Amino acid sequence: MPLRLLASVALLFICCATQAQNLTSLATSAPPAISYVQDIQPILTEKCVACHACNDAPCQLNLGSGEGLSRGASKIPVYQGERSEAVAPTRLFYDARNTDAWRGKGFYSVLEAQGGQAALMARMLDLGRSAPLPANSKIPDEIALGLNRENVCPMPGEFNAYAAAHTQQGMPLAVAGLNDAEYQTLQRWLAAGAPVEQQSITPSVSETAQINAWEALLNQPGARQALVGRWLFEHLFLAHIYFEGGETQHFFQWVRSRTPSGQPVDLIATRRPDDDPGSDFYYRLVPVQGVIVHKTHITYGMSPQKLDRVRHLFYGTDWTVNALPGYGPGHRANPFLTFEAIPAAARYQFMLDNAEYFVRTFIRGPVCRGQIATDVIRDQFWVLFQDPAHDHYITDAAYRGHAMPLLAMPGQNDDVGSVLGLWLSYRDRRNQYEDLRRDSYAKMPAPGWSTLWTGNDNALLTVFRHFDSASVNKGLIGDVPHSMWLFDFPLLERTYYQLAVNFDVYGNVSHQAQTRLYFDLIRNGAEINFLRLMPADQRDGMLGDLYQDGGKFKMWLDYQSIDDDTPTGIKLDAKAPQRDFAFKLIERAGSLNAAPDPINRCAGAYCSRASLDSTFAQAEQALSRLTSRPAAGLKVIDQLPEASMLRIQGSDGKRMMYSMLRNRAHSNVAFLLGESYRYIPGLDTLTIYPGVLSSYPNFIFNIPAAQVPAFVDAMQRSKDQASFEQIVQRWGIRRTHPLFWTYFHDLNRYLQETEPREAAVLDMNRYENL
């Protein structure tokens, strides 16, 4: 009995001690550690990356990766078109390798607590939380929005003064803010010292095999192989590459490395991809790091079949290289001479096979803000390509020899004092080329339908300009445009090199002015190429319609006369030849036209796409009443921004997205300044098309499908700002809407469902305060 009692007492003691230990442990244990990858980056992606990504991130604070957050902020703007001296590039993952190196370039921390104060990021979040804006209200006028906002980039010691002067301008700025859980998670992480673990992307087995095959192709020994590898690199350096059979969200990019395949990449960071690398190098494929954002997401698919295609194009014929070209301004200015040894047919066909990608590189662009390019293009136009068999540069070696020296492009010499002389020199050289082309083509057979390349669904493209950004889409979208472009190889290659390869966003005013002025000549060349397909006796009048008012002076000053004698081989209606051409082109293209468009080109009683269920067919039928009508008869267009998104919600929960694009009419697009004086607002129109056709939504309307007819009726009745305000109040999603982020990111979710390779975070820097 005493033994049993003793055992019971001992057992009770052990149980009590264990329970006390457990209680003590529970009382003293800290909250679970916060992971940057699992907990912090998802919050930043949801609430911050839409503004803080790419070169136009406010204060260069890029929140798409731990590296960008650790780098911090800078007072030096990337976009400063009036600067007289170029600045050092500050490309994340390229131009510095660690935080100390970024500090040496003027970046300061937003994560470190300093002087007894919390981290700058923590204080910015507190400021944003201290003065929330009323739900779904307009942003106060004193809070400037948009790209013209003058960013104030306070350093930690300047924050108190900033907060006193900007009481409602904490972070996130002028938008629905963080919820309680997000705010607390971020503040706990910042208080803990903001630890950032690295997140690496590991290629799959299939991706690794294809990476090895492509790297082997570009790094083959031999002069021919070295020249082809260089040309391919310069044409693919912007691509977000994905592989057949690869992971949906894995993308890769080409770089030059001091180390060969199989070893860690030792990146060579040059200002341009055609600058001298300064040492022996190898072409390597590396993962695209950080959150993928739509504005820089220019995709390019690779596969074993495409590898075979490249081998066939570039090595399927016998050609030789006498000496490899060097690097430098002369080689950058004229890639036709630099790569003369590579058969022109191979180069052009490679670009045609992937025409959408190449047009995207210089129209949508990699630099996040494309005003240098977009102010010389119209708001909607179609892009066509000349068949290689009808391209004189491809088929005639003597002509090619005469043309090559005339195809050099400006921008390599950025001396401000020499800009006028440089421009005149290159303008005159270009005009000599246009004379040569005009006279040579006049001796060729009349151009017909066979002049147009029809090799795949890249053959027909549509460009939409959204003021200082633009988008490119396969197919012929919208009503018949005011102008069309026809690219041949010299024009396509020059456009690519001038706006993608050689354009330096960190360059000075001279470089940027030369780039813009030469692109004006490129656009003019594309328009003239197309006019050769029109009746000869109407070409002058059609060209004059593109260059109204002051454009006439520009035609006299900078452009060459066109061929208005040689007939076209296409029979067209003399009363409306361009419109007749457009509809015949659509009919001939058939399935090659990737974008049937009954909403904007309704030819009968049914103005919706085939195979839609009745709910969305009726919605499209109603929406078609808003399209292709001039603003003089649809006054609501005056109130609309460039790119609005329509989210149409069915009663069953299914929803579809449409882009409602405002096409601004211009008397001409031939001058560097004064665009607002050349608007013809009464001729503005709307294009409404399924999908997300802009990286930069300006506004979202959320409309139940059953209310689409009411929405259309209200739009048709609206004559002023007050009546438009009622439309916004009923269907609009303002920046302060409680569910703003749900609706905004639903655009990306829709892309994930419909075009998964194109899905990426959209930009809200241009989201308007309607």
TrEMBL record:
The lineage of its organism: Bacteria, Pseudomonadati, Pseudomonadota, Gammaproteobacteria, Pseudomonadales. Residues 35-194 form the Cytochrome c domain. Residues 1-20 form the signal peptide. Keywords: Heme, Iron, Metal-binding, Signal. PROSITE patterns: CYTC. It comes from Pseudomonas syringae pv. tomato. GO terms for molecular function: electron transfer activity; heme binding; metal ion binding. InterPro entries: Cyt_c-like_dom (IPR009056), Fatty_acid_cis-trans_isomerase (IPR010706). It comes from the Bacteria. This is Cytochrome c domain-containing protein. It holds the Pfam family CTI.
